[in-house]
Amino acid sequence: MAQTNVVVRFDDVTFGYTKENPLLNEASFSVREDAKFTLMGQNGAGKSTLFKLITGEFKADKGKIHLSPSATTATAKQVMAREHLSETVLEYFAHVFDTVPYNIDKQIADILDVVNLSAPLDKKIEDFSGGQQARLLLAYALIQAPDILLLDEPTNNLDRDGIDHLTAFLIMYPKTVLVISHDADFLNSFTEGVLHLDVYTGKVERYDGNYSDVVEEIAARVERDRAKNARLLKTIQDRKDKVNFFAHKGGKMRKLASKLKDEVAEAEENMVGVRRDDRTINDFTIPVQVFKEPMVEITGVKVILNHEPHHADINLVLRRKQHLLIEGPNGIGKSTLLRTLASGQSEDAKIFPGVKVGYYKQDFSGLDFSETAYNSLASMMDQPDNEVIRRTGAQFLLNGDVLATKVGALSEGQKGLLSFARFVLQEPGLLIFDEPTNHINFRHLPVIARAIDKYEGCMIMVSHAHEFVSQMKFDTTLDLSKLIK
User: Fold this and answer.
1) Mind listing the pLDDT tens digit for each residue in 365-421?
2) On the CB side of 464, how many CA atoms lie within 13 Å of its CA?
3) What mean pLDDT is predicted for residues 80-87?
């Protein structure tokens, strides 16, 4: 590949938050101009950190990071920064420019059209739904037209129309795109290869081709390497047994033993460093609170159409073992319904007294970011039990080092797994899920779907992940878009 055609190059880059456990360990790779690649790796492997190294927010401990001269970067972040929530749309986008252009209104309107969002410029960011905020985050990066566009889980919270608009834009985008995502259909539609960040070795491997094909190629390679190593181990053990036998003999037998030792050394050198594939959480059960009475009653819903609120009367009572799916496009009021129900702020929806509620918020704002993951789990138990806490944490790939880490320093994927571990210890009677697939490694999703489907308490879910939702049975589906004529 010609040097002038490379826009990003890592040369033996090492980086870590601690010297003992570097996320990147002499990692090397390159990406050419105009390429569109997926960055893949286990939750906590350091994918978002790698983006920050590219933008210069973090500096490498060792090695060199090269960008094309004058190359610009922009990142579509996963979560809206809290300092922007009180700003209007116009104030938010004004941060992009050193000098605000005269036609900023048109530029904002044009880029919002790309992400399929119509928004008044004087509306505050905090008044948008999670899905709409995701579109604003995308638009903020896209309006900069960077040479290197970095997308961190861009389809989280997006409905189908939003994903379709984004996909069409990225297919036509004439510059370099690196994307972190677990949405296979989305990735297959426009990416041309994968950069795999190995959580165990800290190395980055490059694969060219369709995302799904690359995932299969990686799995097949692992199996081939394991099979090769198994054959070599058998050969090594056979030679060692013979060495031990012949070494005690004299003459030619001793020479044969020496030759066999050389064969053992050669076989050991040929052993393949097998890349340990992403670990998947094991099947788990969320215990349920014993509660015989009705748990939830909803008599009305506020539906948002064209940024205007409308009220719809309904009659819905939910009991143990009843699961409700709430549907509708971004911004219609799904998350608002869940939030006001859980907080007791709704006049039309209530949770009956005594019900123990587990609430998965799409931005993880229900977690205390200042406490350790261990204490976060301990807070779910009436009588904290160290052995149970650590065993439950391990079930969700939260080992001792992770449990000692503050929640705010965990990756978004680890925060998601922590939330499910908390439910296991909490034993709720009602589970409320607002986009539970956000940030979760795709390998874990079938396991989580089975656990939710088997949950014997009351459950309410909002999710745009149709493949995930299709793996579960729901007693009732409430489509907010059909409540207002």
Assistant:
1) 899 999 999 999 999 999 999 999 999 999 999 988 899 999 999 988 899 999 999
2) 21
3) 91
Residue in the structure block whose two tokens are 């911004």: 331
State which of 4-8, 16-20, 66-70, 197-201 shows the largest mean pLDDT. Answer: 66-70
> Can you give the chain as a three-state secondary structure string?
CCHHHEEEEEEEEEECCCCCCCCEEEEEEEEECCCEEEEECCCCCCHHHHHHHHHCCCCCCEEEEEECCCCCEEEECCCCCHHHCCCEHHHHHHCCCCCCCCCHHHHHHHHHHHCCCCCCCCCEHHHCCHHHHHHHHHHHHHCCCCCEEEEECCCCCCCHHHHHHHHHHHHHCCCEEEEECCCHHHHHCCCCEEEEECCCCCCEEEEECCHHHHHHHHHHHHHHHHHHHHHHHHHHHHHHHHHHHHCCCCCHHHHHHHHHHHHHHHHHHCCCCCCCCCCCCCCCCCCCCCCCCCCEEEEEEEEEECCEEEEEEEEEEECCCCEEEEECCCCCCHHHHHHHHHHCCCCCEEECCCCCEEEECCCCCCCCCCCEHHHHHHCCCCCCCHHHHHHHHHHCCCCHHHHCCEHHHCCHHHHHHHHHHHHHHHCCCEEEEECCCCCCCCCCHHHHHHHHHHCCCEEEEECCCHHHHCCCCCCEEEEHHHCCC
Which range of 8-22, 54-68, 230-244 scores highest in mean pLDDT? It is 54-68
Q: Which CATH architecture has domain 3-210?
A: 3-Layer(aba) Sandwich (3.40)
Is residue 296 a contact partner of residue 352, using CB atoms and an 8 Å limit? yes
Burial group, residue 247, by CB count within 10 angstroms (0-12, 13-18, 19+): middle
Quick one: tokens of 427?
């034993």
Give pTM, 2 decimals: 0.69
- Phi, psi (rounded to 5 degrees) for 365: -70, -10
Domain ranges of the chain: 3-210, 215-269, 296-482
Q: How far is CA 106 from the centre of its chain?
A: 33
Structure tokens at 255: 């020479």
- Taking the C-alpha atoms of residue 148 and residue 137, their distance in angstroms, rounded to an integer, is 16
What pLDDT is recorded for position 359? 96
Question: Above pLDDT 70, what percent of the chain?
Answer: 91
Residue of higher predicted confidence among 166 and 338: 338
Q: What is the CATH number of domain 296-482?
A: 3.40.50.300
Neighbouring C-alpha atoms within 13 Å toward the C-beta of 122: 0
Q: Which of 121-125, 182-186, 273-277 has the lowest mean pLDDT?
A: 273-277
